Amino acid sequence: MTLRRHVSAGRARPGALRPGAPKRPRFRSAAGLFAFVLGMILFAGGPAAGQAPPGGVLVAEIDGAITPVVADFLTDGVDAAEQGGYQALVVELNTPGGLDSSMRKIVQKFIAAEVPVIVYVSPQGSRAASAGAIITSAAHVAAMAPATAIGASTPVDLEGGDLDRKVINDAAAYAESIAQLRGRDTEFARQMVRTGRSVPAQEALEIGAIDLLSRSLPELLASADGREVTVGADNRKVTLRTDDAETVAFEMEFFRRIQQLLADPNLAFLFMSLGTLAIVYELSNPGIGAGGVLGAIFIVLALFSLSVLPVSMAGVVLLLVAAALFAAELFAPGIGIAAAGGAIALMLSGVFLFRDTPGIRVSFGVMIPVTLVVGVGVVLAGRLVVSSQRGLSTITGEQQYVGRVVTVGRSAGRRGQALLDGAWWNVRSDDAELKAGDQVKILGYEGLDLLVSPADAPGLTSLQEPDINDR
Description:
Distance between the termini: 70 Å
CATH topology of the largest domain: 2-enoyl-CoA Hydratase, Chain A, domain 1
Number of helices: 14
């Protein structure tokens, strides 16, 4: 029987799982972020990982695109298996592909590993496509579960078309050299790059693209037992003794899980869009503060996502154009033409923002509703600006506020804010510094700013607005 326990990159979680027991659900969406963070806080103080069990096997799970975060995680997994004295590192893989640079980093680590690496494409219904196919080929033992597929590794350009022939030739030679190193079918390695060939698990076994076909992890470990593999730079021969080996799950650390969560093109697009909308509302009604804070947080999260994803300049330029058009809707509000143009630019940025890398693109199910919400939100913000500008010109005359005395609620140098008729207004003095609590008289207005000076008649209390601290 194969026992299984969990290790979180330096943390252990007590408790064994039955072979074939359901795996813990993987963290897939932003909706589970709060529960995930709470769970990590509760269990962060668990005991440190101890020594590997005799003949134990370290198991890492990858379910999603190959990103720099995944590359670092698997690199650490190899190091942990070597330093912990494990019999082997098993990578349970399900991926549509990912970044070429991250794939090459993983391949190099697998080839130089001093411990056998077994890549297992599982569970049933999974795939090792594009970069995942080459990672599987680089393992000392390549295995697949039934009803899985491998292949389709042709690189593509930013528009989704085939790259220059020399790039294709380089990628094909790279895949072929790895297959040759591991003694696997080189013809299939060439075809999956040049023609995008993909095959099911049974055919992959028959043509020699993989070594084993196994229905479960315990069956895989039993089948791999006794196989001799070559590891390390010195080509050392190692015989696997994995039958009935205890498996230990190697899990991502807390912050790396957050990084992998954020390395999602849909979240990057969502954060950037919502951040822009929040800042637009802050500009349309300054002084609230919440819009600016939320906008800054969303944009920082979006920038992190963009930093680990394959971004195209065309998409970035379109994002900037969208932001400029949204700002134009505020400063020159009309019938929403600028907002409509910004919405179109935002949608196009979602199409072109990420290079056409398998598994890394913005879903239209996210792009379209987010674009509509942001576009409508900007139009409403423009209407707020119009309403504010008209607030000074009612039927009582545009000079209705001149001569009023108000109390400064917030201040920053010669600028501040004051409460007037239930609304916060920007106030500006050309005569003196403003301080919270000062009483000032309204002299006129300029745009959305009330021009004020220190009140000469503090006795006009009947015209004063209540102090901010009294409300």
